[in-house]
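My current task is to audit a protein record that another person submitted. Alongside the sequence sits a line of tokens, each denoting a local backbone shape. Where you disagree with what is written, explain briefly why. This is what I was given:
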Amino acid sequence: MSIESGPERQNAGRDPTYATEPQLNAHALFTNASRQYQKGQYTEALNQLNHLMNISREAKTFVLLAKVLLKLGFKTDAARAYQLAGEEKGSRSEHYLSEAMKLHFACGNEDEALSIGLPLLEKAKTDPDIAFIIASIFLRRDQKEILGLFKAPLSTSVNIQHQSLAFKLLTADIDDAQDRDAVVNLFRKNPKSTVLRAAYLVFAREANDYAEIEKYYPDVQKALDAGKYEILAAESPYYHVTWCGDERLNRWAGARSQPFASAIAEARRNMPHQWAKKIRIGYLSADFWDQHATMKLLQAVLELHDPEKFEVTLFCHTKESNLARDRGNRINWGRIIRIDDMSDAAAASVIRAEGIDVLVDLKGHTLDNRLKILNHQAAPVQVSWLGFPGTTTNIDVDYVIGDPYVLPEGSQEHYYEKFCRLPETYQPNDPFHRPRPYGIARKDLGLPDDAFVFASFNASRKISLQTINLWIEILRRTPGSILWLMCKRDAQANVLRKFQSSGIASNRIILCSKTAYAEHINRLPAADLGLDTYPYNGHTTTSEQLWAGLPVLTFKGTNFASRVSESLLNAIGLPQLVAAGAEAYVAEAVALYENREKIVEYRKALQENRFRMPLFDAERFCRHLERGYEMMVDRAKQKLPPDHIDVPALPPREGSFER
């Protein structure tokens, strides 16, 4: 008689659930193992469990085994035991699998942790422990596509490690709703964090949430008044200049990140380099497609480079989705080398192999930049231009290209780079590829025929608290006027609320959205006067308005970003539209409202100067730019360190440059 058959015969006719002898043995073994575990007799408990697994493989057996193995220091084996428990598919299955994943992760078994964790993705959306493990692994492997799922559970967790990881997962995309929600969650938990306050205010300014800006900005100003400039060190340089017009403080923004060693720049300049008869210019950007604002400015200049003196190469990291929108002009801009799939070091190596003499970064501290390429000694002369209006923090750059307006005397001390100042304006403009305005009737744009129309088409984030307060004062003093305002949808309610709370009726604010470029150019003449923003002026926006014949009113700024419109207005021959300061800006807007004949004069001047003055003279601009490159290269050839350069102006052009 076998051990198994005796009890079966003895229990014949009884309840079929009556325990068999093996089941009795299993129960006894489990009970004994549990007691020994409670007493700290882990080796004895393990022996009992080894016997037990020969006759029973219940989830509770594997759970107890995992606990015993942990006490004995066998974490990887414990992880496998928890995994076996989870695979039994009971009510606690997900919990046991989570424990297995945590242990594998703690042991460095990332592949095993992921194999368990990926089927738990749905649970990870609400479980910060699971989210932490999966996100940590994907972040370490630079697999960022899935990371957005984990920002919510990590940012709402009370665990500081989870919150820190949530912060690391934030992108630089201001339109990322997951980023916005995560920052709000984190800031609510850490209201004294200057880093999180800075991030929170970025999103508040993006949505024009003036109530929140007014709530938290006084803390910032109080710290700055006390000389605590280090609170700015964690700010994004780009978003910093949207609110801070003090170039002394602008230099602090972004200074928290690791700066490059000064020895790198000296070594780069002294590296062997084969100079050729022609100067080899390399342009670095993610914006090489003709519908981007940068290329609406720059493409004519690229096409006009003198092929007898210059070779032009575009080091392109433009997104494929944007390349698909290009209409085929790229072929005219220079030789193109794609570097989007290369590391920074590999891209720099390619640039050196091409023998580039002057590498010009066109992005600066803006979205999708590859600035760190310049920290890998890519070229003997490295330059920042056009993309970012300020100094380039923590990057090995020799020169910043500007003009006497945006980079006036006295500003040098606030820049890491040396100045290369073009004589008339730093901003190129393309008069050949952009559409000419023919105008759209006001009634077709929802504008009243009899009102004086102030207008702004700048990005919503540029409508700072100071700017909107100036506009409120202008509207109060010009009762027959309206403000025609381009504003993103999720900011419109906040903008209207600010006007209404200041006594400006909502029917005096006409909101519009972005539209196709040709239509945008055509609608601009329907306004009477463009109102500039501060401290971040219109850049491309201002030149578009001037191109369309719409006068733009600005005032003298205090840093690069707030001096751009002054540069453009001087280059088109209308310095009268640059007021001395904020109060003068309001007064001049009111004066023009009351003297509309002056608006007619300004429109006429814009019409006459469009193809005569320097602002839209792409060929003249290109010759000045090329002379700047030549002056940089002359110094480099002589092994002289970079120094401030002022490019001499060509003789005034006679006649029109219109094609």
